[in-house]
Design a protein that fits this description.
The chain is α/β, with parallel strands linked by helices. The protein has 7 helices and 11 strands. The protein has a 7-stranded parallel β-sheet with strand order 4-2-6-1-9-10-11, with helices on both faces. Strands 3-5 form a two-stranded parallel sheet.
């Protein structure tokens, strides 16, 4: 079995899709978004393909493609769809696989299922993406508690945004989590620019530690 990683976040809109694009490109791996909510604009898979330069053949099809850009439970209801856990099974691949959740860990997929429940079932190591701006300490520590409560393996945390040494330090210490690095905000992202930023801010060899 090839190494697999889940990329999740402390909130929505913090840059985890950009990180996932950089990671999938760096690992020369596949990308899979289990549930895509919103189809009118660019999907997350299309964003990863554009920003990371990941070939279309390595963007795996979603288990659910929902029309409305909303929480998956609501988007599914509006589409007349019931999200079933048995359909959310990580695909087998011949290269590393990067799996991206939606929003945060407790984003609901139905009235009695959240993304973290699926992560617990999969037992795939999670990389938690956290912003560095005000409010992130609370969101990040709560997210780490949710992961530990469900016995979900955590590979590490990656920070996204401007450097904030004290915020990053206290999250690492109180959360008992190792930092994989920090991805700064990038303007006019290109595959080459993202590749350079990723290699300059992360030790790519550390991702080789992911168990297969």
């Amino acid at each position: 079995m090839m190494p697999r990683l889940v990329v999740s976040g402390t909130d929505t809109g913090i840059g985890k899709t950009v990180f996932a694009a950089g990671l999938a490109a760096a690992l020369e791996g596949y990308y899979w978004k289990p549930v895509q909510s919103g189809l009118e604009d660019e999907t997350d898979g299309e964003t990863v393909m554009r920003l990371g330069g990941v070939p279309r053949t390595r963007i795996l099809p979603e288990a659910y493609r929902l029309a409305t850009p909303a929480s998956p439970h609501l988007s599914a209801r509006l589409d007349g769809v019931a999200i079933k856990p048995e359909r959310l099974v990580p695909p087998m691949t011949d290269r590393p696989l990067v799996i991206e959740g939606a929003g945060g860990l407790l984003v609901p997929l139905s009235d009695d299922l959240v993304f973290a429940d699926m992560f617990a079932r999969w037992q795939v190591p999670v990389i938690l993406c956290a912003r560095t701006s005000l409010g992130t300490i609370n969101h990040t520590l709560l997210s780490l508690e949710a992961l530990k409560h469900r016995n979900i393996p955590v590979f590490g945390i990656t920070f996204i945004g401007d450097e904030n040494q004290e915020t990053q330090r206290i999250i690492e210490k109180m959360g008992g989590i190792r930092s994989l690095g920090r991805l700064p905000w990038l303007q006019d992202i290109t595959p080459d620019g993202l590749r350079t930023a990723f290699r300059g801010n992360f030790d790519l060899a550390s991702f080789a530690e992911v168990p297969a």
